[in-house]
Amino acid sequence: MRRFLRITLQGHGYRLTEAATGQEGLTQAATRNPDVVLLDLGLPDMDGLEVTKRLRAWSQVPVIVLSAREQEDDKIRALDSGADDYLTKPFGQGASCTNSSCPQACGSATRRQRRIGICS
């Protein structure tokens, strides 16, 4: 998933910071100050919902959840924990973050200035 996102988003001019675990993602978010966070719920060290809750304790950075969890309850829990949007995997390039809430979440920064944190 990260490889697909890296190729797609860098091809559209985004700068990326990647993390393989929830704790690494929280550390990267604190030190790199991304414009938006793309978060997988299935992380090896903690559930992505916990990452969102911890992130929300100190940051309002937009969080877009990317998950294979398709149940409506999972989506509601993610949004209730502080996520701003939810994309269900698998998705193609046309439905990736280049066409979802990423551009709006990044605000008025030019595309080359946008910093995206990926935790997957």
Structure description:
This protein is α/β, with parallel strands linked by helices and 120 residues long. The protein is 36% helix and 20% strand. The longest helix has 11 residues, at 22-32.
Brief summary of the model shown:
The protein has 120 residues and is an alpha/beta fold. The chain has 5 helices and 5 strands.
So how many helices?
A: 5
Proportion of β residues? 15-25%
Quote the distance from N terminus to C terminus. Answer: 7 Å
How confident is the prediction overall: mean pLDDT? 82
Q: What structural category characterises the helix and strand content?
A: alpha/beta
Instruction: Please provide the ordered H/E string of secondary-structure elements.
Output: HEHEHEHEHE
Low-confidence stretches: 106-112
Largest sheet: 5 strands, parallel
Q: What is the total tally of β strands?
A: 5
Quaternary status: single chain
Radius of gyration using CA atoms only: 13 Å
Walk across the major sheet and give the strand order: 1-5-2-3-4
What is the global morphology? globular
Helicity range: 25-40%
Present the secondary structure layout:
Blueprint: H1 2-11, E1 15-19, H2 22-32, E2 36-40, H3 48-56, E3 63-67, H4 72-80, E4 85-88, H5 102-105, E5 115-119
Parallel strand pairs: 1-5, 2-3, 2-5, 3-4
Helix pairs in contact: 2-3
Keywords:
120 residues; alpha/beta; five-stranded parallel beta sheet; 5 helices
